[in-house]
UniProtKB/TrEMBL annotation:
CC terms in the record's Gene Ontology section: plasma membrane
Native source species: Shewanella septentrionalis
Gene3D superfamilies registered for this protein in UniProt: 3.10.50.40, Porin chaperone SurA, peptide-binding domain
InterPro entries with a match to the protein in the record: PPIase_dom_sf (IPR046357), PPIase_PpiC (IPR000297), PpiD_chaperone (IPR052029), Trigger_fact/SurA_dom_sf (IPR027304)
Protein name: Periplasmic chaperone PpiD
Localization in the cell: Cell inner membrane
Membrane spanning residue stretches: 12-34
Length: 621
């Protein structure tokens, strides 16, 4: 049979078929390169494509920027897929805006020449050394960023072309000095007011709410009573800290470790030092010359203690003949330290310079390093060996945890048996009230993921802390929905009672307002002169109301305003002009307004271009 097959494969017909097969594969391969891709783009702007790869690259860059800016806060936020999706959508809208600007610039005939790009590169401070363009630095930075020079220049051309259009628009914006001054005067304005708060608390006792009212409120406001999506989990946990207590260490093991690592338990050599210090003051050269002269005197046989008492600027040690203290290596200034530990007992150094001045150092005595007895370090060694055993056990079990939870993905029973621990469970929780022990961004993300929550499979191994991991699976899942009336009845009742009390407080405030307008002066209103917009000692609602009220003429302007728990009567007596509006404040407001106007202009440009464009967001079928 094999002979016939081999002979048949050498025939003309067989060779022809083989050629056709080879050609079909060849043309299929070529068409995959030359033909149009079948991938659905992220967006299409007037026929120009924004690919999913472009979107993903821009999205990852934005994520990196936000991680650097927000730190741990971003880790918590990123556990919510909806939040990440909103970031991705905003990135896509930015790419669409860039595409619209590119198209508008092209339609207007805007161009950037090679000479302009070269000039921009040469004047970029990042590419300069000592204020001059450094080609080696330029090439190094491009390599670091992963750009080829031509690709970088192309990117700059696109960016500079965009800026021609946006800068021309934004650059035309301006703020009048009078406009900024008027705003400064409005912000600095103060008001003389009187007010009286009517607390709703006294009216709560008489508030009555029927079951029918509760039911009507529930039916009309069901959007307020949505329960979030919730899960309860089963999980298998491995924590090296739990293993340490179950790993006893014998005296023999501890002794053997001590003998093997005895060098670690030798105390450092200590040296008793003395010095003569000459501080430089305003004349460093003179101080150095004095120190060198003292060193020569010592070399000639002068007594160190006598010279220290007579000449050292360290008055405390000078009284002791220059004697300092016992020092271990690394305690003193590096130069002092090096000189001290290079001396033999009784020797003095040459002049040594430190940040304190010029020293001459003498070694008075040496205390050799000694081996710490085993008994003194036994407890520490036992703890170290227990931790090591625990970590070794942890890594061995972590491997089993990962393998078994993956191989048997629809239960944790086999996993728990393999690693010898019990399965733990959690109560139902939402994204906002995760049990404290498991409240880590990666775990929350896994708990509400499609794999765990919807497919019911085990998660991957999730690290909570170093040497502390879990694998989770869903035990119970509740979709987001409307809470039953029975669950929220008490809250609705309290809310409706509060509403009744607030309404009673409002009616009382209306009565008081009428009396104030009629000229009553014995109502106990609190007077506040020169109330500012940022006042902290007055309820923010009263402050806001005071600055919404028109300027009074012959009589006060009186109105009411709702508070968190009640109402207040507010009487505006006088509007005071701002005091001391500085030029600095006016200039700062001009800059702020200019930035706001420029941002509005840019948004207006994008909105205008988008309104006249065909922007599509294809969806994969």
């Amino acid at each position: 049979m094999l002979e016939k097959i081999r002979d048949g494969s050498q025939g003309v017909i067989a060779k022809g078929i083989l050629v056709l097969v080879i050609l079909s594969f060849a043309f299929a391969g070529v068409s995959s390169y030359l033909g149009s891709t079948t991938d659905v783009p992220a967006a299409e702007v007037n026929g120009d494509i924004i690919t999913k790869a472009e979107l993903e690259q821009a999205y990852q860059s934005e994520r990196s920027r936000m991680e650097q800016q927000l730190g741990e806060m971003f880790a918590a936020l990123s556990a919510d897929e909806k939040y990440l999706q909103s970031i991705k959508q905003s990135v896509l809208e930015r790419l669409v805006a860039d595409k619209l600007i590119d198209q508008a610039a092209k339609a207007m005939g805007l161009r950037v020449s090679d000479e302009q790009i070269i000039a921009a590169v040469k004047t970029e401070p990042a590419f300069q050394t000592d204020g001059k363009f450094d080609n080696d630095r330029y090439q190094a930075i491009l390599r670091q960023l992963g750009y080829q020079p031509q690709a970088f220049r192309d990117m700059m051309r696109v960016d500079m072309t965009r800026r021609q259009l946006t800068a021309a628009l934004v650059g035309t914006e301006f703020v009048l000095a009078g406009e900024a001054k008027q705003l400064a005067e409005l912000q600095g304005q103060t008001r003389d007011v009187r007010y009286l708060a009517v607390d709703s608390a006294p009216f709560l006792a008489t508030a009555v709410v029927t079951d029918e009212q509760v039911k009507n409120y529930y039916d009309a406001n069901q959007g307020q009573f949505m329960s979030p999506e919730m899960v309860s989990l089963e999980y298998v946990e491995l924590n090296a800290a739990d293993f340490a207590k179950n790993n006893p260490v014998s005296d023999e093991e501890a002794q053997a470790y001590y003998e093997e690592h005895k060098a670690q338990y030798v105390s450092n050599e200590k040296r008793l030092a003395a010095h003569i210090l000459v501080m430089p003051g305003s004349d460093e050269a003179a101080a150095k010359a004095k120190a060198e002269d003292l060193a020569k005197q010592l070399d000639s046989g002068a007594d160190f203690a006598d010279l220290a008492k007579a000449n050292s600027d360290d008055t405390l040690s000078a009284e002791q003949g220059g004697k300092l203290d016992w020092f271990e290596p690394g305690v003193m200034d590096p130069a002092f330290d090096a000189a001290l530990f290079a001396l033999n007992k009784g020797q003095h150094s040459a002049v040594v310079k430190t940040d304190f001045g010029f020293h001459i150092i003498k070694l008075l005595d040496v205390q050799p390093g000694v081996t710490v007895p085993f008994a003194d370090v036994k407890a520490k060694i036992v703890a170290q060996l227990q931790d090591k055993k625990a970590v070794d056990q942890f890594y061995s079990l972590q491997s089993k945890l990962a393998d078994t939870s993956y191989e048997v993905p629809d239960t944790l029973s086999e996993t728990a048996k393999a690693v010898g621990v019990d399965i733990k469970t959690t109560p139902l929780f939402s994204r906002d009230n995760v049990p404290a022990a498991l409240n880590k961004p990666d775990l929350v993300k896994a708990a509400f993921s499609e794999t765990v929550m919807l497919k019911g499979l085990n998660s991957e191994v999730i690290e909570l802390e170093p040497n502390h991991v879990v694998v989770v699976r869903v035990k119970e899942h509740h979709d987001a929905g409307t809470l039953a009336l029975a669950e929220v009845k008490a809250n609705i009742t309290e809310r409706l009672k509060q509403d009744q009390a607030n309404e009673a407080a409002r009616a009382k405030a209306q009565e008081l307002m009428a009396q104030v307008k009629a000229g009553a002066t014995d109502l106990g209103l609190v007077a506040k002169a020169k109330l500012g917009r940022g006042a902290q000692d007055v309820d923010a609602a009263i402050v806001g109301k005071a600055f919404q009220m028109p300027t009074p003429s012959t009589s006060p302007v009186v109105d009411t305003v709702g508070l968190a728990n009640g109402y207040a009567v507010v009487a505006l007596d006088k509007v005071n002009a701002a005091e001391g509006v500085s030029d600095e404040l006016v200039n700062a407001l001009k800059q702020r307004l200019n930035a706001q106007y420029s941002e509005a202009d840019y948004r207006g440009l994008i909105d205008s271009l988008k309104a006249n464009a065909k922007v599509l967001y294809p969806v994969e079928e």
